[in-house]
Write the structure tokens for this entry.
Amino acid sequence: MKTVEIMAVIALVVEAGLMVSARFGTERRHWRHYRNRGPAPRTGDDVTHAPAILYAAAAVAVAVAALAAPLEMNLSTVGTAAMFGVLLPVFAANAVMVLATNGRPEAVTRVHRWAAFAVAVVGGAVSVGLAV
């Protein structure tokens, strides 16, 4: 089971890196606007405003992975799965779309949506290793 735990930690680090880089881009756009060097920030810049389908995909992936893994269900395990298996992968998936489109929701293409969907599903499935 050590391999699953290592993959879960790697996924967690990648997700955090995606979210931080998207947030830096957002903050850079905000500071440019504040210093009168750029246009007003966009509403799609926020990493936490993710589409509901990403939450559903990550939740299903966590549920399927939890059924396949030998987990003892208690409040700590469910909380860990919810935090690391649903919220973080979804925020990272939305960060993929923010990074790819520079915060413009109207510029999101099918490829961006599928990439975000893959990040949410893989991140949710692999994160069960943190609860094992």
Notes: The mean pLDDT is 84. The helical segments are 2-34, 52-68, 75-101, 110-126. Residues 68 and 128 are 10 Å apart (CA to CA). The chain is about 70% helix and 0% strand.
